[in-house]
Amino acid sequence: MNTPPRQLPVCFPPYPDELLSSWIGRHAAFYAVPPLVMLRHCLPEASSLRAADLQLNSDQQIRLANMYATEPTVVRRMTFTNVAQSSRRLIAARPTQICTSCSPGHTEPPLILRSQLPAWRITCPLCGNQFRDVGGREPPSPFRQYRSAALHGQVLLDDEAEHDVKTWASPAGIVRLLLMRRRVLPFPPEKELWRFRVLGKIIPELDELLAEVSTSFPTPQNPVLPLHLRPALLAGVAMVHAGEAEMLFMLRQSTFGFHRHRFDREAMPFFINASLKRHSTQMQLI
Predict the structure, then answer these.
(1) Distant-in-sequence, close-in-space partners of 74: CB < 8 Å, separation ≥ 6
(2) What's the burial of 277, exposed, middle or buried (CB within 10 Å: 0-12/13-18/19+)?
Protein backbone atom coordinates (compact mmCIF):
# COMPACT_ATOMS: atom_id res chain seq x y z
CA MET A 1 0.00 0.00 0.00
CA ASN A 2 1.36 3.44 -0.96
CA THR A 3 2.28 5.75 1.89
CA PRO A 4 0.18 8.95 1.78
CA PRO A 5 2.32 12.00 0.92
CA ARG A 6 3.28 14.19 3.85
CA GLN A 7 2.23 17.80 4.16
CA LEU A 8 4.44 20.11 2.15
CA PRO A 9 6.83 22.18 4.28
CA VAL A 10 5.72 25.37 2.51
CA CYS A 11 2.10 25.82 1.37
CA PHE A 12 0.44 28.83 -0.21
CA PRO A 13 -3.18 29.79 0.48
CA PRO A 14 -5.32 29.80 -2.67
CA TYR A 15 -6.26 33.12 -4.18
CA PRO A 16 -10.04 33.78 -4.08
CA ASP A 17 -11.67 31.76 -6.88
CA GLU A 18 -8.33 30.25 -7.95
CA LEU A 19 -8.46 27.16 -10.17
CA LEU A 20 -6.97 23.99 -8.70
CA SER A 21 -4.43 23.50 -11.50
CA SER A 22 -3.29 27.11 -11.05
CA TRP A 23 -2.78 26.57 -7.32
CA ILE A 24 -0.85 23.36 -7.91
CA GLY A 25 1.19 25.14 -10.59
CA ARG A 26 2.26 27.83 -8.11
CA HIS A 27 3.49 25.18 -5.69
CA ALA A 28 5.25 23.36 -8.53
CA ALA A 29 7.09 26.56 -9.50
CA PHE A 30 8.21 27.07 -5.90
CA TYR A 31 9.52 23.50 -5.63
CA ALA A 32 10.99 23.61 -9.16
CA VAL A 33 9.12 20.60 -10.53
CA PRO A 34 6.62 20.26 -13.40
CA PRO A 35 2.98 20.82 -12.32
CA LEU A 36 1.91 17.29 -13.30
CA VAL A 37 4.74 15.83 -11.21
CA MET A 38 3.53 17.91 -8.27
CA LEU A 39 -0.03 16.66 -8.74
CA ARG A 40 1.04 13.02 -9.06
CA HIS A 41 3.15 13.29 -5.93
CA CYS A 42 -0.20 13.32 -4.15
CA LEU A 43 -2.45 11.61 -6.72
CA PRO A 44 -0.38 9.05 -8.68
CA GLU A 45 -3.52 8.03 -10.58
CA ALA A 46 -4.13 11.55 -11.95
CA SER A 47 -4.09 11.61 -15.76
CA SER A 48 -3.77 15.39 -16.17
CA LEU A 49 -4.26 18.75 -14.47
CA ARG A 50 -7.35 19.29 -16.63
CA ALA A 51 -8.89 16.08 -15.33
CA ALA A 52 -8.22 17.18 -11.75
CA ASP A 53 -9.90 20.53 -12.43
CA LEU A 54 -12.99 18.79 -13.77
CA GLN A 55 -13.47 15.95 -11.33
CA LEU A 56 -12.08 14.86 -7.96
CA ASN A 57 -13.65 12.22 -5.76
CA SER A 58 -13.89 12.63 -1.98
CA ASP A 59 -10.77 10.59 -1.27
CA GLN A 60 -8.70 12.66 -3.71
CA GLN A 61 -9.99 15.89 -2.19
CA ILE A 62 -8.95 14.70 1.28
CA ARG A 63 -5.47 13.64 0.11
CA LEU A 64 -4.83 16.97 -1.62
CA ALA A 65 -6.14 18.89 1.38
CA ASN A 66 -3.82 17.00 3.72
CA MET A 67 -0.78 17.59 1.54
CA TYR A 68 -1.49 21.30 1.04
CA ALA A 69 -2.61 21.99 4.64
CA THR A 70 -6.18 23.02 3.87
CA GLU A 71 -9.72 21.64 3.99
CA PRO A 72 -11.31 19.26 1.42
CA THR A 73 -14.13 21.78 0.87
CA VAL A 74 -11.54 24.38 -0.13
CA VAL A 75 -10.03 21.97 -2.68
CA ARG A 76 -13.48 21.09 -4.02
CA ARG A 77 -14.40 24.76 -4.56
CA MET A 78 -11.36 25.19 -6.81
CA THR A 79 -12.62 22.49 -9.19
CA PHE A 80 -15.65 21.95 -11.43
CA THR A 81 -16.59 18.75 -9.62
CA ASN A 82 -20.01 20.19 -8.75
CA VAL A 83 -20.81 21.20 -12.34
CA ALA A 84 -23.60 19.22 -14.01
CA GLN A 85 -22.38 16.73 -16.61
CA SER A 86 -24.54 18.39 -19.27
CA SER A 87 -22.59 21.64 -18.81
CA ARG A 88 -19.05 20.24 -18.92
CA ARG A 89 -18.56 21.01 -22.62
CA LEU A 90 -19.06 24.69 -21.80
CA ILE A 91 -15.90 24.73 -19.69
CA ALA A 92 -13.05 26.09 -21.80
CA ALA A 93 -9.66 24.37 -21.82
CA ARG A 94 -7.89 27.68 -21.17
CA PRO A 95 -8.93 31.14 -19.95
CA THR A 96 -11.26 32.93 -22.35
CA GLN A 97 -12.17 35.95 -20.20
CA ILE A 98 -10.91 38.12 -17.36
CA CYS A 99 -12.39 40.45 -14.76
CA THR A 100 -10.08 43.45 -14.45
CA SER A 101 -11.39 44.10 -10.93
CA CYS A 102 -10.92 40.59 -9.51
CA SER A 103 -7.88 39.43 -11.46
CA PRO A 104 -4.65 39.30 -9.43
CA GLY A 105 -2.79 40.90 -12.32
CA HIS A 106 0.49 39.65 -13.74
CA THR A 107 2.00 36.82 -11.71
CA GLU A 108 4.62 34.19 -12.39
CA PRO A 109 3.45 31.56 -13.04
CA PRO A 110 0.21 33.09 -14.35
CA LEU A 111 -2.60 32.71 -11.82
CA ILE A 112 -5.87 31.43 -13.30
CA LEU A 113 -9.28 31.92 -11.72
CA ARG A 114 -12.03 29.33 -11.95
CA SER A 115 -14.38 31.98 -13.36
CA GLN A 116 -12.13 32.49 -16.39
CA LEU A 117 -13.20 29.17 -17.95
CA PRO A 118 -17.05 28.88 -17.95
CA ALA A 119 -18.35 29.81 -21.40
CA TRP A 120 -21.85 30.33 -20.02
CA ARG A 121 -20.85 33.63 -18.38
CA ILE A 122 -20.37 37.19 -19.63
CA THR A 123 -20.11 38.80 -16.17
CA CYS A 124 -17.87 38.03 -13.20
CA PRO A 125 -19.56 35.88 -10.51
CA LEU A 126 -17.49 37.62 -7.82
CA CYS A 127 -18.26 41.30 -8.50
CA GLY A 128 -20.78 41.31 -11.37
CA ASN A 129 -18.59 43.38 -13.70
CA GLN A 130 -18.52 42.73 -17.43
CA PHE A 131 -15.82 40.29 -18.49
CA ARG A 132 -13.12 41.41 -20.90
CA ASP A 133 -11.01 39.26 -23.18
CA VAL A 134 -7.84 37.70 -21.80
CA GLY A 135 -5.81 40.69 -22.95
CA GLY A 136 -7.92 43.01 -20.78
CA ARG A 137 -9.71 44.61 -23.73
CA GLU A 138 -13.49 44.90 -23.96
CA PRO A 139 -14.29 43.59 -27.45
CA PRO A 140 -17.22 45.41 -29.08
CA SER A 141 -20.25 43.15 -29.23
CA PRO A 142 -22.80 43.52 -32.04
CA PHE A 143 -25.46 42.08 -29.72
CA ARG A 144 -25.82 44.82 -27.11
CA GLN A 145 -29.57 45.02 -27.73
CA TYR A 146 -29.83 41.47 -26.43
CA ARG A 147 -28.00 42.18 -23.17
CA SER A 148 -31.02 41.75 -20.89
CA ALA A 149 -31.94 38.42 -22.48
CA ALA A 150 -28.27 37.36 -22.42
CA LEU A 151 -28.05 38.00 -18.68
CA HIS A 152 -31.18 35.91 -18.18
CA GLY A 153 -29.64 33.13 -20.26
CA GLN A 154 -26.51 33.34 -18.14
CA VAL A 155 -28.61 32.83 -15.00
CA LEU A 156 -30.37 29.81 -16.52
CA LEU A 157 -27.10 28.17 -17.55
CA ASP A 158 -25.35 29.02 -14.29
CA ASP A 159 -28.22 27.66 -12.19
CA GLU A 160 -28.10 24.38 -14.07
CA ALA A 161 -24.31 24.07 -14.09
CA GLU A 162 -23.46 25.21 -10.58
CA HIS A 163 -26.67 24.54 -8.61
CA ASP A 164 -28.26 21.59 -10.44
CA VAL A 165 -31.51 23.52 -11.02
CA LYS A 166 -33.90 21.52 -13.22
CA THR A 167 -36.37 23.16 -15.61
CA TRP A 168 -38.56 21.90 -18.47
CA ALA A 169 -35.52 22.01 -20.79
CA SER A 170 -31.84 21.82 -19.97
CA PRO A 171 -30.28 25.22 -20.86
CA ALA A 172 -27.06 23.40 -21.83
CA GLY A 173 -29.19 21.15 -24.05
CA ILE A 174 -30.72 24.23 -25.67
CA VAL A 175 -27.17 25.44 -26.42
CA ARG A 176 -26.51 22.24 -28.37
CA LEU A 177 -29.73 22.67 -30.35
CA LEU A 178 -28.95 26.30 -31.20
CA LEU A 179 -25.51 25.42 -32.55
CA MET A 180 -26.81 22.82 -35.00
CA ARG A 181 -26.85 23.67 -38.69
CA ARG A 182 -30.01 24.97 -40.30
CA ARG A 183 -31.49 25.07 -43.77
CA VAL A 184 -31.54 28.36 -45.68
CA LEU A 185 -33.09 29.23 -49.03
CA PRO A 186 -31.88 29.88 -51.60
CA PHE A 187 -29.34 27.14 -50.95
CA PRO A 188 -25.92 28.75 -50.31
CA PRO A 189 -22.60 27.56 -51.73
CA GLU A 190 -21.27 24.49 -49.92
CA LYS A 191 -18.31 26.42 -48.51
CA GLU A 192 -20.75 28.72 -46.65
CA LEU A 193 -23.02 26.04 -45.15
CA TRP A 194 -21.05 25.94 -41.90
CA ARG A 195 -22.11 29.42 -40.81
CA PHE A 196 -25.88 28.95 -40.85
CA ARG A 197 -26.87 27.83 -37.37
CA VAL A 198 -30.26 27.37 -35.73
CA LEU A 199 -29.35 30.30 -33.47
CA GLY A 200 -29.45 32.60 -36.51
CA LYS A 201 -33.17 31.90 -36.83
CA ILE A 202 -33.86 33.97 -33.69
CA ILE A 203 -30.74 36.21 -33.74
CA PRO A 204 -30.70 37.16 -37.45
CA GLU A 205 -27.69 39.48 -37.08
CA LEU A 206 -25.57 36.37 -36.53
CA ASP A 207 -25.67 35.21 -40.16
CA GLU A 208 -24.14 38.41 -41.51
CA LEU A 209 -21.54 38.53 -38.77
CA LEU A 210 -20.41 34.95 -39.34
CA ALA A 211 -19.94 35.70 -43.02
CA GLU A 212 -17.02 37.90 -41.94
CA VAL A 213 -15.49 35.24 -39.67
CA SER A 214 -12.66 33.26 -41.23
CA THR A 215 -12.67 30.43 -38.69
CA SER A 216 -15.38 27.85 -38.20
CA PHE A 217 -18.14 28.53 -35.70
CA PRO A 218 -18.37 26.45 -32.50
CA THR A 219 -20.45 23.28 -32.70
CA PRO A 220 -22.71 21.31 -30.33
CA GLN A 221 -19.64 19.22 -29.49
CA ASN A 222 -17.46 22.29 -28.86
CA PRO A 223 -19.82 25.11 -27.80
CA VAL A 224 -17.31 27.60 -26.36
CA LEU A 225 -17.94 30.93 -28.12
CA PRO A 226 -15.64 33.98 -28.13
CA LEU A 227 -16.71 36.56 -25.57
CA HIS A 228 -18.04 39.07 -28.13
CA LEU A 229 -20.33 36.43 -29.71
CA ARG A 230 -21.47 34.84 -26.45
CA PRO A 231 -24.36 37.27 -25.71
CA ALA A 232 -26.14 36.01 -28.84
CA LEU A 233 -26.03 32.41 -27.61
CA LEU A 234 -27.07 33.28 -24.05
CA ALA A 235 -29.94 35.42 -25.34
CA GLY A 236 -31.01 32.56 -27.61
CA VAL A 237 -31.13 30.20 -24.63
CA ALA A 238 -33.35 32.66 -22.73
CA MET A 239 -35.69 33.12 -25.71
CA VAL A 240 -36.12 29.39 -26.31
CA HIS A 241 -36.62 28.73 -22.61
CA ALA A 242 -39.35 31.39 -22.47
CA GLY A 243 -40.95 30.32 -25.77
CA GLU A 244 -41.11 26.67 -24.67
CA ALA A 245 -42.24 23.91 -27.04
CA GLU A 246 -43.75 26.26 -29.63
CA MET A 247 -40.40 27.94 -30.25
CA LEU A 248 -38.56 24.62 -30.23
CA PHE A 249 -40.93 23.31 -32.91
CA MET A 250 -40.36 26.43 -35.02
CA LEU A 251 -36.60 25.96 -34.76
CA ARG A 252 -36.93 22.28 -35.62
CA GLN A 253 -38.55 23.25 -38.92
CA SER A 254 -35.39 25.11 -39.91
CA THR A 255 -33.21 21.99 -39.71
CA PHE A 256 -32.75 19.30 -42.35
CA GLY A 257 -31.48 15.77 -42.93
CA PHE A 258 -29.03 14.45 -40.37
CA HIS A 259 -29.34 17.65 -38.35
CA ARG A 260 -33.15 17.26 -38.17
CA HIS A 261 -32.74 13.72 -36.80
CA ARG A 262 -30.20 14.86 -34.24
CA PHE A 263 -32.38 17.83 -33.25
CA ASP A 264 -35.36 15.51 -32.74
CA ARG A 265 -33.33 13.09 -30.66
CA GLU A 266 -31.97 15.75 -28.33
CA ALA A 267 -35.14 17.85 -28.14
CA MET A 268 -37.60 15.01 -27.54
CA PRO A 269 -37.22 15.03 -23.72
CA PHE A 270 -37.90 18.77 -23.75
CA PHE A 271 -41.09 18.38 -25.82
CA ILE A 272 -42.28 15.70 -23.39
CA ASN A 273 -41.49 17.84 -20.34
CA ALA A 274 -43.27 20.84 -21.86
CA SER A 275 -46.33 18.68 -22.54
CA LEU A 276 -46.35 17.36 -18.96
CA LYS A 277 -45.93 20.87 -17.61
CA ARG A 278 -48.86 22.13 -19.67
CA HIS A 279 -51.02 19.20 -18.56
CA SER A 280 -50.12 19.85 -14.91
CA THR A 281 -51.06 23.53 -15.25
CA GLN A 282 -54.40 22.64 -16.82
CA MET A 283 -55.14 20.20 -13.99
CA GLN A 284 -54.39 22.90 -11.43
CA LEU A 285 -56.83 25.26 -13.15
CA ILE A 286 -59.53 22.57 -13.06
Answers:
(1) 14, 65
(2) middle
Separation CA 163–CA 84 (nearest Å): 8
- Number of neighbouring beta carbons within 10 Å of residue 77: 16
Q: How far is CA 116 from CA 75, 112, 126, 163, in A?
A: 17, 7, 11, 18
Residue 94: strand, helix, or coil: coil
Distance CA 153, CA 156 (A): 5
The per-residue pLDDT for range 33-79, each reduced to its tens digit, is: 999 999 999 999 999 999 999 999 999 999 999 999 999 999 999 99
Cα(10)–Cα(132) distance, rounded to whole angstroms? 34
- Contact between residue 262 and residue 178 where contact means Cβ atoms under 8 Å apart: no
Cα–Cα distance measured from residue 186 to residue 183, given in angstroms and rounded to the nearest whole number = 9
pTM (2 d.p.): 0.91
Q: What Cα–Cα distance (Å) separates residue 95 from each residue in 24, 30, 119?
A: 16, 23, 10
Task: Annotate 180-195 with b (16+ C-beta within 10 A) or e (fewer).
Answer: bbbbbeeeeeeeeeeb
Give the CA diameter of the chain: 71
